[in-house]
Protein: Lipoprotein signal peptidase
Amino acid sequence: MTTAPTAGSGTAEPGGGTPRRRAVVVLVSIAMVALLADLLTKHLALLSLDDRPPVRLLGGAVYLTLTRNSGAAWSIGSDHTWVFPLITIGVVGWIAWMALRLRSLPWAVSLGLVLGGALGNLVDRIFRAPGYFVGHVVDMVSLFDPYGRVWPVFNLADSALVSGVVLAVLLELTGRQRDGSRIGRDDGKRAEATPAEAEQRGRA
Structure:
């Protein structure tokens, strides 16, 4: 007698591959796309916005202005730049650990965005001036004000990271788990199925 694979079990499915393998592939793919897009936009910003006044777009809703940030948002922690690479390395390690039991594609998207954004800024911290692990992050997008007084100047890596975190919060609020199960709904289905399963077993 064979038993059907349970949700989050890592058993191969008809589509090919295991749920965990597909989720990890999605995570890594999204992270790489976000990282490459961030590096490209930073390169273009350095080529076209350096020594140039802010570029006004969408009637002033968006400005393109090149800045180099040694800290976090609004230059918070700019005197302790070396701390940020360590935090990012910790985040990357946490995502790698989470991938060991990851079977949810929405969570793969979320973690992929966070990973890509974290790696994009980590590259700046490690390799850009003024030195290794104290490099300044290249930012170029400002909302409603060219100098970041309304909202901090940011880059594509920041956007990916924030989008990933927001998606993670939504997944948590809706009970979606990283192993592919869903709190509440899956429990209810199991509870409803129990009498039928018991009756079927009794007939057997």
